[in-house]
Amino acid sequence: MKLFRTQKGVIIDSGSGYYLAKQRDWDGFVNRDDLYQAIETEIRTLTADDSLKKHIETELLPPIQQQEVWASGVTYLKSREARMDESKDAGGGDFYARVYDADRPELFFKATAARTVGSGDAVLIRRDSKWNVPEPELTLFATSSGKIVGYTCGNDMSSRDIEGENPLYLPQAKSYDGAAAIGPCLYVPLEPIDPTAQIHLEIIRKGKTEFSGDIGIDRMKRKHTELIGYLFRETSFKYGVFLMTGTGLVPPNDFTLEIGDEIRITIDEIGTLINTVSQKPLEV
Q: Closest Cα to residue 166, out of 261, 259, 95?
């Protein structure tokens, strides 16, 4: 099952038809531990309508309303190496090696819903950064009880030079307007997502592929339930929460995003999150 948040309402793609959910409130609809079963029950009372597909294509909204977006770091070996490399001159490289092997994962607040964009929207790069990259990540959705009921594609935009200058600058490198993208839908399976599912990243510049790569989510060191377990230890989420699970796809050190680039993040079973790169206009 796939849930799309649109201007029309919550649209359900069952794989064999499109349905408009009775409930328009996204928060109330998705924050259910029995979400898959609830969707199955509801579509039995609905009539399929293929014309709803056009609303997904033209009126798509980010699959988030009042949830927060959090993120995990250094969950793949490649990410550990990249973080150590960018922070070595500041003496912070050892921090990342230690957290990769530690029991406690790195978790940090990423974005409010207002700072999060969906597929078809623009992600932003900071004006005070010269080294910006996307980070394609499987993103979990957990209900207010901490149960993982869905998945989406996530882009944890990162200003690598700011974080590399000093690890304490992480919030500035990671959390700013337009620094988080999720979508295009919330994928709700009966069973946990296939561990062999692939994450694919493609960055297109002026019509040509500037960078591409793939990695399986089974290359992640941490278990999904482990990450959610730590996140919920002393923190509550009234409407549920999105958790980006880290990246294993890192462009080379001589690469940085440019305005106008198109970022395409595809995860098997979920779909493709598409964003263009932009920048805030200068204040007058």
A: 95
